[in-house]
Amino acid sequence: MTGEDRGTLLDLLHRNATEHADVPALVDGEQQLTWAEYQRQSSALALALLDLGVTRGDVVGLHMVNRVEHALADIGALLAGATPTSYYNTLSPEQLAYVTRDSACTVAIVDADMLDAWLTIRDELPALSAILVLDVEAPTEGVRRFDVQLARATQELESRIGEVTAAAARVRPDDPVTVVYTSGTTGRPKGTIITHAGVRAVLDATTARVVGELGLHPDPGLCQVSYLPLAHMAERMITHYFSFEHASTVHFVRDLQQLPQVLPRARPHLFLGVPRVWEKFHSAIIDRAASQPSPVRRALGTKAMDIARRVGQAKFGRRRLDLATRLWHAVFDRVVYRKIRRTLGFDRILIAVSGAAPVSRETLAFFHGIGITIIEAYGMTETSALLTINDLRDPRPGSVGTAISGVELRIADDGEILARGANIVPGYLNRPDATAEAFDADGWLHTGDLGSIDKDGHLSIRGRKKELIITAGGKNISPANVEQAIADASELIGPVYVHGDARPYLVALITLDPTSWQSWCSARGIHVATLADAVAHPQVRAEVERAVEAGNATLSRVEQVKRWVLLDREWDSTTGELTPTLKLKRSVIRENHAGDLGRLYD
What we know:
Blueprint: H1 3-6, H2 9-19, E1 24-28, E2 31-34, H3 35-51, E3 59-63, H4 68-79, E4 83-86, H5 93-102, E5 105-110, H6 115-121, E6 130-133, E7 143-145, H7 146-169, E8 176-181, E9 191-195, H8 196-213, E10 223-226, H9 233-246, E11 249-252, H10 259-266, E12 270-273, H11 275-290, H12 295-316, H13 323-344, E13 351-354, H14 361-369, E14 374-378, E15 388-389, E16 402-403, E17 407-411, E18 416-421, H15 432-438, E19 445-453, E20 459-464, E21 469-470, E22 476-477, H16 479-488, E23 493-499, E24 506-512, H17 517-523, H18 531-536, H19 538-553, E25 561-566, H20 586-592, H21 594-600
Parallel strand pairs: 1-11, 3-4, 3-5, 5-6, 6-7, 10-11, 12-13, 13-14, 24-25
Antiparallel strand pairs: 1-2, 8-9, 14-15, 15-16, 17-18, 18-19, 19-20, 21-22, 23-24
């Protein structure tokens, strides 16, 4: 099937508004829109953008939390013939100025909290003609109220719908559906051009996998939860675009801290979690079991957690369980696991996905044991989010599954994963040099990831090609594998950075998990007020030392970390060590912690 045959995202919008008009499409707190209302309001917004001078191919910048208006603005821009581009809310003004200049943003639609950053950089953006702001009664001069523009266009929509229809009719499958900026782990972020055809190819392939291989037949109205940044391609694909394919209902989470409250209300059928989210859920469940008020309940909670892990591990290893474990599991499923699923909001989950980074085998086994099977998937922005996905019937920890239909994979002589298919993007915005480097003349994308494919077609990731450490002894080591081994050994540990290029041995900078160190300490009666207090506590340091030893035990001798330091600060995208998608910025870490790294070799 060609891109022309698949059509555009707007074709799916029209189908849903016609065939599933009354099915809820967007839910944001008390606000709810059906698919018919979704089309009508996004069409009104398209008219407002046309009145602001937006023309075919212009970029409309979106700088908002996950909310109904973000989705309306995205689709409204497409209906106007423009290209919507979401920017991370954590960008500094300097970073925001770079991506908005690079994308030649003409109109920006922003949350009130983002307005000051835009006013700071407005004079640096020659292409910017208008800023629309939400939730501000009296905006600064030169800034328009979003609600006023939308209301005015809504009043005129019936008489002027032809203008929107004409603009939308010119949108072709090979046109951009969005521009997504990469994380910028090795330099300036690159604007990746995602097309309607690429998105539709992934949607068709995942539907074929779900229906054909798993036997699931998604009905209109399936529920999803949108909480990861819409500047991230995986979130766009798994919630925003997937909802168009299946006329599903998306519940928005404006603040990540509200996710535990929204999930039980939404009760999603499909849920995407990055490893940090799954591991946070895991830690919370374990901590709750360990902090039960009575000794009997604590003992039963600990037993239930142990049985879940053992059952999950046995299933992954295709081992038969002994009778006692099977009986315990059946009992705990009725009195414990079912309650956990309901409390989390996963009592009707059909597909739980983990992506963006490896998730620990222990976490996968635990959730498998309590009746939530998490399947790992692999892809990148340049593949329209997806290349491979595990089989829900037979997930294989350590593998990211097999290629989706229409995708070819091969391993280059140096171990790099190459991919080709209809989902591969045409290139980077304004970067012909980077495009030529990543995409060869035969259409193969050079992913930059190292991996292997087994006889059954299952892909395993070994690390990043450009991040390989070559020790003084000439050994090639993937730091990601070492970092993962240490982080997986304890729920207390957060991001880990391993160093050792041209050095005789490996060393590590270790941080505590910002989402769990307090609860970990509290569950063990460790009274600490600050992160620095926790880092200095003997029991915390002993746990980190145990985790390093446990991680080292899974590695070859040359991969083992010989010395390490536990940092008394957190890493995140605002401090610079992590990208907005929580990947390590290795050059920043090396520069910021040159002294720590040097002392580890003294």
